[in-house]
Write a structure and sequence with these properties.
With 446 residues, the protein is of the alpha+beta class. Helix content is 46%, strand content 23%. The protein has a four-stranded antiparallel β-sheet with strand order 6-5-7-8, with no helix packed on it. A four-stranded antiparallel β-sheet has the order 11-10-12-13. It has a two-stranded antiparallel sheet with strand order 1-2.
Length: 446
């Protein structure tokens, strides 16, 4: 066996593991810190703050008597409060019963209802805050597209043209350019002749001039979808697809149409990369895509996201605009997650859309390989999904505890300890079953 031949594959697996551990550790740390800090503010004492499970690799005791530790298995974490029997926050009734009134107040079981509710809800809320912060920061860094549309950084493409950075676009193919965010902009692009070069009118150095420009949305790879056919054959951002099955194409729309017409048939792509042409054979995958109006649509895709032939110049986005984008992005992740789960339960879409730890790890590595911005964005997406998952009304999860507290608020008494133990066992069984099902999907789904 050639050991050296295995090194690239081993490096890829190692990179995937590292990316997954980093993403998960950030999300878990934020989630558990939410529980910890709000519990502390509410007068509830945390005995242990653990990142990971199993044997402890490192620990220290702070001045407040909380043990901070990192454990061997980086697949979660927990805060163990005073009076908890275990990491799942099941109460230790016997231990709490023997405490003084002052010490009992510092436990989850003995704290007022408002303090327990705030402490439990803080974990998911901190996940949502992390997502909003990430999406807002990305929106602020990317800015708002300048008006009029101005050429920023040009992509490297095989087409010879005269477009330059700094050109203000006035018209394409003789049609005045509408605002970039106006639906009429997309209609203009769709109505253009699908040829590699077109006449552009631009404002350069204060004067309007006619230049030869490329098709504005060529079959250029801007980004790759994780776990897609394009990722499997190692296509890269910046690749330009010049032909499909020997037939030349000039627009991204032609690429999309050809993939959909093939309906899963293998395709031969001719790709221009760094001045050289190469060929890739790939098989489109059937995917369930969320729609803007709700629901899902099943389509054939190869996992390539396109865009403009240049990066539009942008102006700085203000905090309010960025925050609105962050909130909207987080809400869309939550809405899409609930919709996807519902459609899987009802059988409207394939259950293979549910990924387990292996699938999430694979996506982590692929997003990290596409650059820090994409990886940070993925952390934001995963954080919103984790926050939402923890709000599900399942015992063991935060949402289950909140249901118990709601019951207590309505009836004036907490559920009995025996009932809690049974419900916790059922909840744990459900969660483990879902994890096994998701792991099955990771292994056996195409």
């Amino acid at each position: 066996m050639d050991i050296l031949a295995l090194l690239p594959a081993f490096g890829g697996v190692l990179w995937t593991i590292i990316a997954f551990v980093i993403a998960l550790s950030v999300i878990v740390a934020i989630h558990e810190y939410g529980h910890y800090i709000v519990g502390r503010w509410s007068g509830i004492h945390a005995e242990v703050f653990s990142l990971g499970f199993g044997p402890v690799l490192w620990s220290r005791m702070d001045g407040r008597g909380t043990k901070w530790q990192i454990a061997l298995l980086p697949f979660g974490g927990y805060v163990k409060f005073l009076g908890d029997a275990n990491a799942a926050s099941a109460p230790d009734g016997e231990a709490v019963a023997g405490m003084t009134a002052a010490d009992r107040r510092r436990t989850m079981l003995g704290a007022p209802l408002w303090a327990r509710t705030a402490t439990v809800a803080a974990g998911p809320i901190f996940n949502f805050v992390l997502s909003i912060g990430i999406f807002s920061a990305i929106a602020m860094s990317q800015g708002s597209v300048r008006v009029p549309l101005t050429v920023g950084e040009m992509a490297a493409i095989p087409t010879v043209h005269d477009l330059r950075a700094g050109d203000e676009v006035v018209a394409i193919n003789g049609v005045a350019l509408p605002d970039y965010h106006d639906p009429a902009f997309n209609k203009l692009i769709a109505d253009l002749p699908r040829i590699t070069t077109l006449p552009w009118t631009v404002r350069r150095d204060g004067a309007e001039i006619a230049v030869t420009g490329p098709y504005p949305m060529p079959p250029l790879v801007h980004q790759l979808s994780p776990q897609s056919a394009a990722v499997a054959i190692e296509m890269k951002p910046g690749d330009v697809i010049t032909a499909i099955d020997g037939g030349a194409i000039a627009s991204f729309a032609e690429l999309k149409e050809a993939v959909e017409r093939a309906e899963g048939r293998p395709l031969l792509l001719t790709v221009w990369r760094d001045g050289a042409e190469m060929e890739f054979a790939l098989v489109p995958k059937r995917v369930d895509e969320p729609q803007a109006g709700g629901g899902f649509r099943t389509s054939w895709r190869i996992g390539i996201m396109g865009g403009m032939v240049f990066t539009p110049a942008a102006d700085w986005a203000g905090p309010r605009q960025a925050l609105m984008a962050g909130v909207a992005g987080t809400w869309e992740i939550m809405r899409g997650s609930v919709s996807g789960l519902w459609h899987m339960v009802t059988g409207a879409i394939s259950s293979c859309n549910m990924s387990g730890p292996l699938g999430i790890a694979e996506v982590s590595g692929q997003m990290a390989a596409q650059g820090p911005t994409n990886f940070i964005y993925f952390i934001g997406v995963l954080s919103a999904a984790v926050g939402l998952l923890n709000l599900f009304p399942v015992p063991v999860l935060d949402g289950g505890h909140l249901v118990f507290y709601a019951y207590e608020a309505v009836t004036g008494r907490a559920p009995g300890e025996r009932a809690l133990q049974i419900l916790m066992t059922l909840g744990l069984t459900l969660i483990l079953s879902m994890m096994l099902f998701a792991l099955f999907n990771d292994i056996f789904c195409p």
